[in-house]
Amino acid sequence: xxxxxxxxxxxxxxxxxxxxxxxxxxxxxxxxxxxxxxxxxxxxxxxxxxxxxxxxxxxxxxxxxxxxxxxxxxxxxxxxxxxxxxxxxxxxxxxxxxxxxxxxxxxxxxxxxxxxxxxxxxxxxxxxxxxxxxxxxxxxxxxxxxxxxxxxxxxxxxxxxxxxxxxxxxxxxxxxxxxxxxxxxxxxxxxxxxxxxxxxxxxxxxxxxxxxxxxxxxxxxxxxxxxxxxxxxxxxxxxxxxxxxxxxxxxxxxxxxxxxxxxxxxxxxxxxxxxxxxxxxxxxxxxxxxxxxxxxxxxxxxxxxxxxxxxxxxxxx
Length: 317
Known about the structure:
This protein is of the alpha/beta class. The chain has two domains: 2-106 and 291-316, Glycogen Phosphorylase B (Rossmann fold); 109-289, Glycogen Phosphorylase B (Rossmann fold, 3-Layer(aba) Sandwich), CATH 3.40.50.2000. Helix content is 45%, strand content 14%. The protein has a six-stranded parallel beta sheet, with helices on both faces. Strands 1-2-3-4 form a four-stranded parallel beta sheet, with helices on both faces. Helix 5 crosses helix 11.
């Protein structure tokens, strides 16, 4: 079907996005057969992460070969996180990574047009966690927060932690932790919401939460983090050092890192009580996490690939 469409409409370029791995095999064949330019997009560092590939060796080798086709033969490669460029370069021995372009996902500004007065407003301050709390995350934040709320001044604020995401996923993991650390009255679990409502929750929050732990998913640029940065919201973070998430939080100026385990509770207490300065935000840097910037970035890559192809054809003629 792709071959038919390309020939019928004289399409010069195709984009394949994976997972699934098959997408890249299709892109390779279209380039071979029809001579179209090919851009391979990686949404995840597929065969780098055990969660993304098959546990069966025979299937894994086929997945690795499909990924290798894209890395070696695509005219350009787009990646969701800068870390993927390093992973692909190291895994496949690229001597030149100039074909690899970092393009983040983006927050859709049109969804911010709902009135702020319709936002959910709590009478007390809250921190918000967006998405699914994974089994690979540790309990560091819960231990720290349990110390924080023992402070009478903090307890008096009525501060809450909102977990917004699939209740069937978050509930079974978060409820036992809340019970273990005696945090039931400070935690509220909310099922997933329409994006407009979710963005209002984030905008009204004291801060976003990014708390996978100090050893989890160093390569990941979380979708929730993209939303936080695009909305220029401070982020209380427990993340690996170094990591993709930390790098973008440092560049944006939004990160509040609970790195020092002995002082983390004191640091978070000061933040909740507004006794510490809110980070100075790099507004221009945050703009790259909007859909408008994402679309512009893809257009630039498309144009570059097509122009390079035309230049090579001109020289050969």
